[in-house]
Amino acid sequence: MDRFGLSLLEQERVWELRGAGLSLRAVARALGHPPQHVIRYVASTGGRRPVARRRAQRCLSVGEREEISRGLAGGLSSRQIAVGIARSHSTVSREIAGNGGREGYRAAVAEGACWDRARRPKAAKLAVNAALRAVVERRLVEKRSPQQIAGWLGRAYAGDPRMQISHETIYLSLFIQSRGALKRELTRHLRSGRSTRRPRHLSADGQGHGQLTGKLMISQRPAEAEDRAVPGHWEGDLLLSSRPTAIATLVERSTRYTQLVALPEGIRAEPVRVALTASIATLPEQLRRSLTWDQGKEMAQHARFSIDSGLQVYFCDPQSPWQRGSNENTNGLLSTSPSAPRSACRRPSSTRSPPSSTAAHARRSAG
Length: 367
Hints:
six-stranded mixed sheet; 8% strand; 17 helices; elongated; alpha/beta
């Protein structure tokens, strides 16, 4: 069954790509769908892959229903059809009677009706147990995690199985609103603040928590980049707009040629990598020598960017924006330009202007 414009095969592909660590927007690009289709589909599941439905062995298969349909068209009786598919004649009789009779039986319609009847959804425990729901809601408001709530209930109501619940059930009741149990507003009391489940390995993006890994520092940059004699060495940074949009600025150290790169999908590592790669691709190969950036996490995918663009990335020392002086001065000019919208020209705090003692150094570095 299609959901949010995604076929069953595409829905399965969403979870495969998600499990491989791709973001929802990357998944949407891989499938050729608008990001909103994938985002809404994943949100409807609470970020958890639905359990695949399986046909019980006692139930008729699609092939058996096709044989029943052909047998009816050929004028065979229920007993004759049952012999042909090795089923009880009573099973065949019930199947025909429950799906339009001998004149109206259609295999495809009967198959769909079988899956619909097999659903029998079970009401969520928090939806039918008001006392348990009230306790869970109160503890969530008190900033207790679902794991803490489940453990506390096990101790406080040790002899009452009606007041026991797993932390996973609490999460699902929060994230899947169709369960009709807990209000979505309660998700703001979770420590993560998320409204859907997210794979653990995805949050780290392969970079650890809060730090970039595998980076080359500015001290390792080729000496030819220092004297600005050879073009092709770039400095980059972000100018923030109203979230989530922004622009990236790339300034060539020798010529001061500047590229402004739109980031309509935000400043997370993946959209920044994709946009910068596309921009660098417009340059001749001899102008792709190095890129110097600050320590911002928007460059968390710098290794893949270097492979895709052929441009090696070097990182400034922490809190040393003057090490990319040309870019800092360019961003300052852009942010104070009378024709530039104020909302589109806010520099990240990590690239604040150098203190007065280093201002002259910054000007010298900028040429």
